Amino acid sequence: METKDDELIHFEAHGAAPLPPAVSEGHVEHDGARIWYAAYGAGPPVILLHGGLGHSGNWGYQVPALLRSGRRVVLIDSRGHGRSTRDSRPYTYELMASDVLAVMDELHLEKAAFVGWSDGACIALILAMTVPSRAEGVFFFACNMDPSGTLEFHPTPVIDRCFSRHASDYAALSATPDDFHPFVEAVSLMMRTEPNYDAADLGLIRVPIAIVLGEHDEFIKPGHAEYLARSIPDAQMIYLPGVSHFAPLQRPAEFNAAVITFLDGIGTPGNEGLRR
Known about the structure:
This protein has a single domain, classed as Alpha/Beta hydrolase fold, catalytic domain (Rossmann fold). Mean pLDDT is 95; it is low at 268-276. Helix content is 37%, strand content 18%. The chain has 276 residues and is an alpha/beta fold. It has an 8-stranded mixed beta sheet with strand order 1-2-4-3-5-6-7-8, sandwiched between helices. One of its GO terms (molecular function) is hydrolase activity. Residues 44-142 form the AB hydrolase-1 domain. InterPro entries: AB_hydrolase, AB_hydrolase_1, AB_hydrolase_fold. This is Alpha/beta hydrolase. Keywords: Hydrolase.
């Protein structure tokens, strides 16, 4: 039966679907943090980058679909999130992007496609902008690239349920399980003040990009998403109907279909992205 959880009632109570057994799993020591990763399957690599305050388990509905499509899937917990640690420095998207490169080096991945959700989308686009040789393409879902792109915050029951799940998952997974509120404050400061990229920066991107937004996104201005699509050469603009900022959890079948269509369009048959 098709999963549909528009109000995130199931997600709050149970989380996303459990992840399958990993082929490899571990931590990379990088720049003051221990970064958790897991890899699944074989084939062209795709790296999934989760949203702020979440963790890689939020991709539980996406991993099996990508494995069935014949891809190698890599999950990374952003520094300070999930099973990854952090030092005392403020969060920055650029620092988290450097952590992704450290995991790629550990796994001998020369190049990968990225699927980013919210903060993870920003991290992925920074990688496409700054190290294009490592990026096959970016599926950029539900994020901004400068602070003007966000809507005024209004709490909703759906947001509250997601936040509740994040709090319980943080307590269960983090090396600092009692520090959820300082963690939220630190990540929220980054979200309010970063990223800060302009149209000239975006115009330098030369890898395939899809700018993707849910019809009812609670955080991102539709006009900002359209501006990103206009500013990035040859970028696609994709709207996902009937969903919000939480589309991978709300209607995973539709979200997964959009991801796989994008990946199929950029993929090189037989290219598994391994460093030779």
